[in-house]
Amino acid sequence: MPELKTLVLFFITAVAEIIGCYLPYLWLREGKSVWLLFPAALSLALFAWLLSLHPTAAGRVYAAYGGVYICVAILWLWSVDGIRPTYWDLLGSVVALSGMAIIMFGPRHT
């Protein structure tokens, strides 16, 4: 069960980070309101706080989180940007998630 909790926490963290970066993108590239920067800042603060909730070493969390971020970014590409992922996008996501699983759930010798 801790593995599922870790995955869910990583997923929510990735969504917070992507929203925090996507809203300024909308302002800068799409000419949307500057007011989008406020929820973007809140989302990035939430992202940082969520990363701090993991009970393991920060470096390990950051390394493993990257794999989940890649997968969530590809889902964002499909659901928000409306671009269907290629086979290679999906394969890369599987490889990244495999790396995350090895880093987070591999045996530890103390």
Report on this model:
With 110 residues, the chain is mainly α. It has one domain. 77% of the residues lie in helices and 0% in strands. The chain has four helices and no strands. It has helices at 2-30, 37-51, 58-79, 87-105. The longest helix is centred in the N-terminal third of the chain and has 29 residues, at 2-30. It is flat, with a radius of gyration of 15 Å. The model has no long low-confidence stretch (mean pLDDT 92).
Give the tags.
single chain, 110 residues, mainly alpha, 0% strand
Q: What is the radius of gyration?
A: 15 Å
Number of DSSP E strands: 0
Q: Describe the main β-sheet briefly.
A: none
* Portion of residues within helices: over 70%
Overall average residue pLDDT: 92
Domains (count):
1
Tally of individual helices: 4
Q: So what's the overall shape?
A: flat
Which structural category fits the helices and strands? mainly alpha
Q: Spell out the helices and strands N to C.
A: HHHH
Strand content: under 5%
Distance between the termini: 22 Å
How would the blueprint of this fold be written?
Layout: H1 2-30, H2 37-51, H3 58-79, H4 87-105
Keywords: Cell membrane, Membrane, Transmembrane, Transmembrane helix
Transmembrane segments: 7-28, 34-54, 61-80, 86-106
Protein name: Small multidrug resistance family-3 protein
